[in-house]
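U., I forgot to send this yesterday:
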Amino acid sequence: MKHRIKLGVLCLARTTFDFNGAKEIFDARKKDLRNLENVDLQIIEDLVIEVEDGERAAKELASKGVDGVVIISGTFHLGHLALILDKVIRKPILLWGFNELPYDGGKIRLNSVCGVNLNASNLYKSGNDTFHVTIGDEIDRDWVDAVRIKSALQNAHIGLSGFRAHGFFNLGVDELKTFKETGVLLDQFPISEMYGQEVSEEEIQEREREVRKKFDTSGVTDEQVKKVARLIASTKKFMDVNRLTGLAVRCWPEYANNYGISPCAAMSILQSQGYVMGCEGDVEGTLTMIAAKAVGGETPFLADLSQVNFKEDFALMWHCGVAPCNLWDGKSKRSLDTYFAGGRGVTADFVMKSGKVNIFRIDSARGRTRLYMGTGEAMAMDKELKGTYAKVRFNKSIGDIIEQVVYSGIAHHVVMVYGDFIKPFEIFARLMGWEVIR
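Result:
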């Protein structure tokens, strides 16, 4: 399900053009807009023509707390109007122009595209170059999804359980810079609060039945299965009580020592149920998962670009065993294992399903925030090793990808999500003023 947002919509016009024709098109578009998924519309019903109309509309939409503004150039119009809206509302702007109406022997009827050009030039020259433009009969749904990402991050509450993993300096974040750019608040908690919540024996037993139903547990002990079950119940309660949108977890080196097992298997199940969880204390990776989920990405997860095959041109997107268990390929054995942390790893092991995938990462370096992205295809493969993984062939050579990643300093975690969400992420990067590395 996509993140719910609120959009302001209004139509600008000028009486020296066919404003009645523009109003008819606007009324028809309103019906289409009401079909947008999880979008609450705040529509200024009448055409906005004079400066005073623009001022009233801007105040009304600002008071409604909209996440973005759709400014339609029904006809050519006063240049004041979009600037007034930008000044008062200060939210992402879509400049939408209608297709021109058939000629009737007189002057051009709408001149809508010229109105879009006027607004774009005024906004750009006033310092706003984060607007987006579309021309045609339908709203640009990719822009709508980009606004979902921005809103989801602005409203996110991220928890950090412990700290980043030992030695993973490249996963560190500047909390106040992150807050300034995205609005995200980050709260840090002791690791013990994640696994130390009071849960009933009935809850543990219910979660244990769930674990045994989803996984072959023959490779672990009954006590380890029970610890996985208890951690699922405790973590769920911890995130719910603290109203966390996402949780980054320092899952090693001390987690297994302090709790008895690593959290991988518990995180695999919780992520399959919609909880956003990043391993190894990766806050920016967790933010990226929230972004992917906002546009309808099904259970995004963190993976390493772990193995490359230059001859066959693919990469193994692998992690130690934390991917959401609903992404299982349905063929390999879905099992629990203890291959690391001195036999206390308790990770999920399975091959992930085939299909089109995107990889993303919100990544900061040298005082700048960048957005890394790529497109590929996860292919069928046999279960040949421990952990959770997919064999992926990308839309550019794996050699080019490795060169791009290492020479731009992208962190060694990326978010992989099934589907194609590149365009909304590109528009989102423009809204944020971030560099795109693709």
